[in-house]
Specification:
One of its GO terms (cellular component) is mitochondrion. The chain is α+β, with helices and mostly antiparallel strands. The chain is 19% helix and 29% strand. Strands 3, 4, 5, 6, 7, 8, 9, 10 and 11 form a nine-stranded mixed sheet that branches.
Amino acid sequence: MNSEWKSVGNGHLEGPIPIPDLDPSKLTITLTKSPKAIPAPETLIFGGVMSDHMLVASFDPVSGWSAPEIKPYGPFTLDPASSCFQYATNTFEGMKAYIGPDGAPRLFRPAKNMARLARSAERLALPKFIGRQPFNPDALLELIKKLVVIDQRWIPNIEGYSLYIRPTIIGTRSALGVSASDHALLYVILSPTGPYFRTGPKPISLLAAAENVRAWPGGTGSHKVAGNYAPGFLPQRIAAKQGYDQILWLLRDENEWKVTEAGAMNVFVVVDREDGDFDLITPPLDGTILPGVTRDSILAIAKAHTTGKLTLPGLSPTRCLHPHERAFAISDLDRWLSEGKLREMFAVGTAAVVAPVGRVGFQDDLKKLARDLVLPSYEAGMGPVSRGVRQMIVDIQEGKFEWDGWCGSFNERLTLREHGNASNWLGRFST
């Protein structure tokens, strides 16, 4: 239970008044009577197909969180004045479910996503608790597991495929006043997805954005909120017209253009060291960088490789990776290339896991000079470090390699309120 102070008039407050938090024990389940056909894996487009069911709960400032529901996927009815439409009071997460060797679903480090969603919701004052988390992350994770079990048949049992999970919280206060939303809607939807690279890893090209910024100090760059994404659509379109795949976001720091992110992904570079090892460098979490789960995982397994706790596929255990969270600029990329030290550059995120970078186009808005920085190429598309960390993460996700409890299988027991013969349709998905 969360608590709030309740106004009783004349400026006086009475409290604390208990406000219900998310409660998995109150879950109700209504299964679809018309389960959809699952499309062939080769036809899947990221986010283009949704599974049969969704999870929904709403927040009211007086009654707190409603009893959560799992019900057939479908549209919502919202007031046109809702703050989610007017002021972008929206936050979301991206995570995936996999099928392990035991046939049970698996989630990759889901507590990280729940914690980040809670931080993002708090940043947008969703819901309007004082000094409290917006929801119980453990409760939401339990509910997500139940949803995944119900729609387990939607998880492609093919290497490189998964079920994408999109938890979302939106503000639903139906008034135009510019203030925090005291009403909210939480929902979770699922979408089967295939590998980011359908024909194998292909290096992407980036256009460094000197005229636009993704985030700025004191803003919301370190949170996964909807308002961070729409402003990037036009620069992305401009980049595509110039023959680039994505935007490399920069931030001006005195006389340097600091590298921040690539599209909606974190960035890493691999640089030769004097001792023959590699430096693995990514920009620091300075408030403008999203703390990606894949980013954090790569830093951890790079350190584990160097300390001998594991060996990355394709890398000699004696070739150490020294992870660093420190700023670097376009000028550093240029210098490392001219010195022959820049071995790899890659972007990382939930969707792609790892995307190698082949070239970076840069036009300084002061000098008006445009040129491409061309990175070393590799026959298989990825360099040894990017390939090694990608393979290790995928192996952990799919249960081929167990590491530090990052990805365990589960089968949630469901309390099902039967509707017709829906319980028979659930069948093998409940335990």
